[in-house]
Amino acid sequence: xxxxxxxxxxxxxxxxxxxxxxxxxxxxxxxxxxxxxxxxxxxxxxxxxxxxxxxxxxxxxxxxxxxxxxxxxxxxxxxxxxxxxxxxxxxxxxxxxxxxxxxxxxxxxxxxxxxxxxxxxxxxxxxxxxxxxxxxxxxxxxxxxxxxxxxxxxxxxxxxxxxxxxxxxxxxxxxxxxxxxxxxxxxxxxxxxxxxxxxxxxxxx
Length: 205
Description:
Blueprint: E1 15-19, E2 22-26, E3 32-38, H1 49-66, E4 70-82, H2 93-102, E5 106-118, H3 130-149, E6 154-156, H4 159-171, E7 184-189, E8 192-198
Antiparallel strand pairs: 1-2, 2-3, 3-5, 3-6, 4-5, 7-8
Helix pairs in contact: 1-3
């Protein structure tokens, strides 16, 4: 019986630091990334082809601006949440009644992220190059400018938010509130030491 070859699970990122005005995530090979959270201008279940074309034009512009040696990832997180709205104690009766009516109702929250990554040019660990490092931050600023000019609401994640995002991504859990790593499975083999494997058990979150 053929045995399945074990693969070592590599974390999403090896390091996280705030430098030169950006929160940068580094991969195991030293590739830097910056995460933008943005509001998708195309409404859910929209039938207006023009909106899709305009948004596609924005992404195309970003890709052309980044150029060779960069990767752009767009991630849409669809997550069921329970509605909640903080109501001041001195709010009017009708206001309190309105929000209490929807309290706890389930809805689908959609969050969109753009991840700009400067790819390694060689297979080995990337060595520090001031020119390359400056180019990375310049390209990130240009992406920021493009989204601003097109009127797309966006922001760069803070260090705490980026750290939480990575952990939630690994846990496949984006519901508001506390979460835990429930998709790791520990198994043993008679001929090998115990290993921990990454098991993506849920894709709808």
